[in-house]
Structures are given as structure tokens and as C-alpha cells.
Amino acid sequence: MYPKLKTCDCLLFSLTAILCLLLFISCKAKEKKFESQIIMFEDFDKPGKPLSDVGFEWSFVNDMYPNQQKWEDFVPGDGYAYITIDAETDNDTDETFPFQTISFKNIGPGHRLVMFAKGIAVSGVGGFIFTYNEDTTFDEIDIEIVPDDAGTLPEGHQTNPPNGWTDARFNSWSNSSLSDYKPEGSFKKPVINSKGRKISLNDDMFHTYTIEWNHFQGGDGRNGKIDFYIDNVLQQTITTPVPNGPSDVIMGFRQMSWTGLLNWSGTHTMLIDWVKAETIEP
Ligand SMILES: [Ca+2]
Ligand SMILES: [Ca+2]
Ligand SMILES: [Ca+2]
What we know:
The chain is mainly beta.
């Protein structure tokens, strides 16, 4: 026979149960304290200018491939944005460092920007998601992908899977000079997976490109923390300089001095499945 419970045992048991319940509720409350809010999500599932245009002012630039003339050429309504370029330079409408992009504004610090895209690594151009704002100085945060960065060694490495890799630049500028680009945070390195192995993004697969943009209050406007992720693998952190103002968010391609040769023919297209901006815990 079990011994009969005394009244004080029962009381103790009840008190313990209540205490546990309170602890559980308070933990839950703490968990709920911060909830990330999506302030913009674009799935590109309707033809034409993105519907998230309300408040975000979408626009496009077609310097490299003017054949994309109107919004329906970039967003046909099948769930993807198409950023198409060719290797011909005689049809470019900008002779120095032409763009082919779509963009929206404005996003400031305290946000996570995520783009889910494929076809970003193309020889001769940087493929990117970046933020930009310019007045008498400029602010910028970049994830730029190129098969083989002409500004870094080794030269001419393999760029295709399984043995090759793609290079990246993770940069930031804040209140930086338009003449000497200082102050500057710039890191040039291969893209890695969760095991730290160099990987190629030229794999016909979709990948996430994430910029987590935190600005620390009370600094000189140049301190904070930016974490750069590809497929949720941290590629780089920059703590200075970190911009603190609202900026455009730009996705697509640009021909630049360090992006190598357009050594192919026909066209290349970056497909963007979706892009979002959400709040992050301060
Ligand atoms: Ca062209
Ligand atoms: Ca989509
Ligand atoms: Ca190189």
C-alpha cells in the first residue's frame, strides 16, 4: 500500500506545480518578446511592376541589355524576376560600368534583407544584392559574386562544381568620400559552405543571399554590425563602417573593372524567386 499523502504534501505539490506553470509562462513571454516582422515580401507572381511597389518605389535599369524595355520583360508573372544580360557591349546604353538591375527603396538598419536567386555568378559581371544611398557622401553594403575575381589571386581558378569555386566581395561604406571611397570595409574571398569548403554558385541552383544590417545607436554613425550570409552560412561580419541611413536595395548585374571578361555569347539570366525585408532584433 502507498502511504497516504499528508495535507502538507498536497500543498507542497500544488505550490510546485503552480511555480512550474508560472516559470513556463514567463519563459514563453520572454521568447515572444521579439518577433521579426516582414515589412516587404515580393514573390514576382504578377506580371509587371511588383505589387509591393506601394511604399517601396520599384525601378529598373537596363544599361547592359536594353531589350528588357518594360516591367513585363523583368517580371512576366510566373513567380520570378528575370535579370538578363548579353555579352555585346555595342548595345550598352552606359559605356562605363553599365548596370542591369531591379531595385526598391527605402530600407535602413535594423533589417534583414534576403534574396533567393540563381544564375548570379557570370563571368564579366558582378551579380549582387546591395544597398546604396548618395548625397555629398555615400552609404553602401554589398554582396557581390563573380566566378573569378580579377582583383584577387589565384588568377584563372576553376569556377564550376565540383572542384571550382566562385569569389565574393562583402563591402560596406558609411558617410564615405565620393572621391577616395574612405572609410571602407572590404573583404574579398571565396564563397564557403557550412564546413568552410569553397563552393561554386555556378550550379543552376537557387541560393539565399542575406544581409543583416545592425547599426549601434550612439556611435558616430559608422559603427554597428553587418553579417553577410549565403545559404545561411556566415561568410563575413563587418563592424565598421556601418551605414545608418535609408538606402535603395538593388539586385542584378554590373560590369566592373575586377569582374573579368564577358567571354561567352548569347544571354545570361539571373532568376530571383523572391526577395524580402524583415526586422531584426536590435
Ligand atoms: Ca550589352
Ligand atoms: Ca517567386
Ligand atoms: Ca582571381
